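[INFO] parsing input record for Peptidase S41
[DEBUG] input buffer:
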Amino acid sequence: MQKNYFFLLFLLLITACGSIRKHNERQKICIPPDKLKKDVDFAYSKIKEMHPQLFRYISKQDLDHKFDSIKNTIESPITPLQFYFKLQPVISDIREGHLSLRIPSKRISKREIKALEDKKAMFSRFDYYIQDDRLFIIRNKDSIENIKPGTEILSIDHTPVSYYIERYRKLISTDGFNTTFKPYFLKDLFFNYYVAEKGFQNQAVIETVYNGEKKNYKLIRESKSEDDLKKEKENKKRTDEKKINDYVALSDSYNRNFRFLDKDSSTAYIQVKSFSGVYSKKFYENAFEKIKNARSKYLIIDVRNNYGGSLEEIHKLYSFLSPEPYILIKPSEVNSATTPLKTNYFRKSNALQYTFKTLAYPAFFFAQTFSTYKKDGKYYYKIKADKLSKPDKNAFSGKIFVLINGASFSASSILTSKLKNDKRAVLVGEETGGANDGTVAGFYSYQTLPNSRIDLPIGLVFVQPDITPTNTKKGVVPDIPVQETMDDIIHKKDPQLEWILNEIKKEKTAN
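[DEBUG] output buffer:
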């Protein structure tokens, strides 16, 4: 038995190594135009088959024309990566933020991963800010070369940064005609795109300018010290506090934060950087019990830079924000009764997982088959959040302020759209990156283009907050627009939060 076990592990290891090698070799091969044109047709046919509300932001005629036109530009053999840079801008024109090709890139072996784990990153040791076609460093985490916050990066290895920004901006899909999302998402993904193109390099030369003075710096992928490795090991230990507040080791920070902002505990503050769903129920129960016991009159919820996540989590959170019974979302539309069966049940399964999933498939098939219903000629997916729900016993009844910005996306936008519609909160900041009237996500069907082998995840569920639609085709607009500048971030000023605190102070004084 033990021999068979080790043989299976060895077989899986050999298979994985061969798969990585085969994948990387395929990335170098130029694919004939006729095969790439078939990939374009395949992508469009699958999107039309599965994506609900496909023509919300673009007409069928215009989208047909764009897919036909892209085929006319493919005249000679090109690599999968070159093909990605042609096709993804067309998919981004659909203006559905969750719909996007996965950028093809080199895969690395476990040995290479281990080597990288023992080294510090090059580019992610800085925080960035994008303004138009310019890239700035706003935080130097390790004081590398004493580079000052506010330094602009002009070029990387002698290629202008503006070239990359213009190139990568076209790849980003937004919800509708939103204008605030791209700068946030691009500054977070800029070096993901860059590394996908260039690979993991051990050094790079950046040309910078600060206060009119230009300088070149050579960034090196340094080895981690013993103290660094010791700290990482310590950070991986999962305490109850880390679980409930959802600790993120990569950034050495908590995903969820709760505190009172004044001595009398009259103002509570909850920050959620991602609706990960992990231990969220316990976090909210603890937080709102403390808020109730403190008899707080004001609550500030900060979902800035929160790209979304779990619908179940925002449903739970809303139960603490609504004093009355509520419905969070409208019935969620899908394209057909069989849509839930298109979720690639066996995706990324090794031999052992495949065996277990095969045994469990009848139960999965039964559950998914009865998870849809038809009404007025349309199909809908059953979700708990579209039913009337009761508020929690510790639901907050005071005044709520919510902080939003262009990186408040997906579930963050559903939550804030509902709060605004119900006049349950005052929204402060800037237009959210996610749509006000709903988005297509839920769960995905992971398609692979047959010739380029590029992955295409397609959202299958149209999720709408239970609101009166605005039909603006944009994000959730704040009640109080307050902009945050790069200078504010560098000097750790928060004009959006300050506006709320000043407003609370005025109300307290008036009372």
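[INFO] The domain at 120-220 is CATH 2.30.42.10 (Pdz3 Domain).
[INFO] shutting down worker
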